[in-house]
Structures are given as C-alpha cells and as structure tokens.
Amino acid sequence: MGATQRQDGIVAGRLSPEAYVENFTDAYPPLDPHEALVAADRCYFCHDAPCIAACPTEIDIPLFIRQIQAGSPKGAAKTILNQNILGGMCARVCPTETLCEEACVRELAEGKPVQIGALQRFATDTLMATGEHPFTRADPTGKIVAVIGAGPAGLACAHRLALHGHKVVVVDGRAKPGGLNEYGIASYKTVDNFAQAEIDWLMKIGGIRIETGAMLGRDFTLDELRHDYDAVFLGMGLSGVNALMLDGAEDRLGNAVDFIATLRQSDDLSRLPIGRRVVVIGGGMTAVDAAVQSKLLGAQDVTIVYRRSQERMGASRHEQDHATASGVRLVCNAMPVRGVEGGVEFEYTQETPDGLHGTGETFTLAADQVLRAIGQTYGEAPGAVLDLERGKIRVDTEGRTSIASVWAGGDCAAGGEDLTVTAVAEGRDAAESIHRALSA
Q1: What one-character DSSP code corresponds to residue 10?
Q2: Distance of CA 101 to the CA centre of its chain
Q3: Residue 414 per-residue DSSP state
Q4: Alpha helices in 136-188, H assignment, sequence order
Q5: Which of 83, 205, 84 is nearest to 135 (CA)?
Q6: Which of 17, 134, 189, 230 sits at a 20 to 30 Å CA gap from 273?
Q7: Residue 381: per-residue pLDDT
Q8: pTM exceeds 0.90
Q9: What's the number of CA atoms in the CB half-sphere (13 Å) around residue 353?
Q10: Residue 67's domain is classified under what CATH number?
Q11: In what order do the strands lie in the sheet with 328-331?
C-alpha cells in the first residue's frame, strides 16, 4: 500500500493490510477450557486470601477459581460480577501483576502467581457468550437517578442502582458510551468491540437509559440535575489534559489520549497517520499504550521519555516490559526543554530533597511526532460549587460530595488510583450509598 505523506512528515499507510491485522490482534489470547482447569489447579484456595484484599472490588478470588475447577465457569462469573459488573473488561486491562497476582501466595513462594486475570476472563467470557444476565432487577422504587458519564464508574453505579429497582438515566458527552473502556485503552487489549458488547450485556438488567452527545455544563447544569432527579452521580472522568507547552514543536505536539481515541474509533488503521520517529512524554499507562500502538502502526523509532526514575513510572513493570518487547525505548530522568529542527531537546533531571531539578546536561531526540501523556484534569461542573481536593472532586468514603444529593466516583473524584477496577468499585459503592439515602 502506498503511504500518504503529510507536509510534517507524518505518514498514513506505512504497513501492508495484513500487517495491521496481525499487529492489532488480541495481545493476550484467552485460555481454553483445559488451560483454565490447569491454571485453576495451581490455586491454594487460601482461607485468608491476600489476593482478595489486593483487589479494589474485593472479588472472592479463591471461590471463583474453585468454581472453575468444579466445572462451573458461569457460577464463577456470577461470583466475579456480583462484586465487579465490568469483570470482563477488568480481566483484560486491570494491572493484576501489581494487585491480586502480586499478592498471590504462589507469587511470593515461586515467583509465578496463579493466572487470576486470565481465569477471570475465562469465566466472564463463558457467561457472556450465553447471553445470560445473572441478576434480576428489584421492583421499581419510583426513584430516578442521573448518572453523568458512561465510563466504568458510571456504568457500575447505574447497574447497581437498577438492580435495587431505581430508574437510571446515564448521560455521556461522547457519541458512544464506555468512557475510558471505549476511548482510552489500547485496542490490542480489547479486540472485537468488547467494550460495547459488555455494555449491551450490562443493559439487560433493565431500568437504565443511556443518552449520548449531551454534556454537563453545555447542555445542562448540576443545579438542574438536582432539581429534576432524586440523586446525581458524577462519573465523567477527566476532561482536560495537563498543559505542556513545547516551544518550537507546536506543529508536532498532540495529546496521547486523543491519539488513542482516534485509533480506537478508526475502521481503517491504514488511514491513520503516524510519524517515523515518535516521542511520547509521560510515564503512565496512557504513555505506554500510545507508544506501543505507534510502533504497531509502523513508526520506526518510538521513545517514551519520563522525568523521573523508571521505578517511579505510573505504568506497571509488566506494561513497561511489554513496551520494550514491542520495540519502544524508555528514557528516564529527563524532561523536555524545547522543540528543535527535526526533534526535541531534553534536559537530564535528578531528584533531591528539594524536588526535581535539571542537571544542565541536555540531549536531543529526533521526532516528527510528539505525544503528550502527562495526566488529565477535572473540568468543574457549572452550577453548584463542589469542593475540590488536588484538582478533583472531594468525596467521603461513600462517594458523597460537599453538596447534598450528589455523589461522585472514578477518575474525577479524589482518592483512589486512576484504574478501571477502582472506578468500578467507587461507582458500585456510591450506588449502595445512594440506595440507602433514597430508602431512608
């Protein structure tokens, strides 16, 4: 296929059609039934299982693995989904290597944990393939709740509220529901349109209506929501991208989250332009996803540059290793200074008791495309003023905000880690708090 050249050196169609298909297949193929039984047999079924405590949604991991071992993967799936209704997606994207699998006794004893994530995917995929929904909605309560944001927190909150019999209206600003699961995760982790398939399955609980293309602040205010609904849950994620001005590289600088979203919604990867030499600035999961996918799209040289040490990177070591195995180079302890002709100038850094400082020593990386992956920010909801904490919505342990009848969870709320599984837990727990309030 002939490549399409842009003036800035970014090219579409670098690879053959076959290469795109091969590069973006499932990076972690599922277990077959025999492999699942073998993996399940390695579990010690610990009485005080540390893996449960390490799971943000507190799934009874030994129980669901024993159910797989006993030949009941659908029963195992219900055990998982009772705690984490998005257990299928979390099985694909959750950093199990730093959560449940890191706490696994097998990991501590042998350096090889039980494949908890893969077993969770096996169970949830088995159930979803049947089309069954193992939960029954309670009788309608007559209460109606607005959920703003159709990402992991919002969907988890909506399902639990519907389960209790409340009517739920989920509103999201994008064209599709799913939030981070649909727009922000590497496509090789969630093949075959899994994010939308999981939402379709979740909606079988009934009592939930999803409205897309409407935004808080543009189309309605928080005051209006509080007037029209019995309760409000805010789970709209983080809408802004932290600023990084890079003089001399403005024409080559883009946001990694936008890059990933565009890739995820593309129906023809050969039409996506990519630089021959790509530099990603940041050290989290978004940086790794953007870098690896740049490589898969045909970029020749891809480098992640992070301002602190490799041990301080937000991306797990497993994700870092996946990046380097994919041909991505990691450069740590360096920060961008300015754009120069054909590249970006960086300065080496060092951490001191007084903070991070430049050393004065610089180097240049060739780059015709630069992606910014340095975190996102919360955009305030117009109307009633919410108390903030470190730039996010301040909440208590149940997800209640500073305003009566308004709860929040997920990435827009202060507290937990910015992980899909944490967002699910916060949405679920906020729903239980809302249910208690509405039932009082």
Answers
A1: E
A2: 19
A3: S
A4: 152-163, 180-183
A5: 205
A6: 189
A7: 55
A8: yes
A9: 0
A10: 1.10.1060.10
A11: 253-255, 369-372, 277-281, 301-305, 328-331
Amino acid residing at 358: G
Ranges under pLDDT 50 in the chain: 1-7
Q: State whether 352 and 399 are in the same domain.
A: no
On the CB side of 184, CA atoms within 13 Å amount to 24
Q: What is the CATH number of the domain that holds 417?
A: 3.50.50.60
Q: Dig out the tokens for 93 from the structure.
A: 């994207």
Q: Final residue of a domain: which of 106, 130, 154?
A: 130
* Alpha-carbon span 214 to 277, nearest angstrom: 37
Q: How far is it, in rounded angstroms, from Cα 409 to Cα 153?
A: 6
**φ, ψ dihedrals at 247, nearest 5°:** -55, 135
Tokens found for residue 181: 């699961």
Query: Which two tokens mark 24?
Result: 């973006």
Amino acid in position 216: L
Distance from C-alpha of 366 to C-alpha of 299, rounded to nearest angstrom: 13
Query: Domain range for residue 386?
Result: 144-239+378-439
In angstroms, what CA-CA distances link 129 with 35, 62, 123?
18, 23, 10
Q: Which of 130, 155, 171 is the last residue of a domain?
A: 130
In-domain check, residue 28 = no
Distance CA 408, CA 412 (A): 7
Identity of the amino acid at 79: T
The pLDDT score that the predictor gives to residue 382 is 53
Give the position of tokens 């699998």: 101
- The set of long-range contacts for 181-185, using a CB threshold of 8 Å and a minimum separation of 24, is 181/86, 181/89, 181/93, 181/151, 181/152, 181/420, 182/264, 183/257, 183/260, 183/261, 183/264, 183/265, 184/257, 184/260, 184/261, 184/264, 184/286, 185/93, 185/260, 185/264, 185/289, 185/420
220 token code pair: 């309605």
Q: What is the pLDDT of residue 437?
A: 98
Q: Which residue has the tokens 């501590």?
A: 108
**Beta carbons within 10 angstroms of residue 39's beta carbon:** 19
Q: Which amino acid is at 152?
A: P
pLDDT in tens, 152-206: 999 999 999 999 999 999 999 999 999 999 999 999 999 999 999 999 999 999 9
**What tokens were used for 138?**
């309670």
Residue with tokens 């754009």: 339
DSSP three-state, residue 78: helix
Residue 56 lies in a domain: yes
Q: What are 169's two structure tokens?
A: 């209206």
Question: Domain for residue 348, yes or no?
Answer: yes
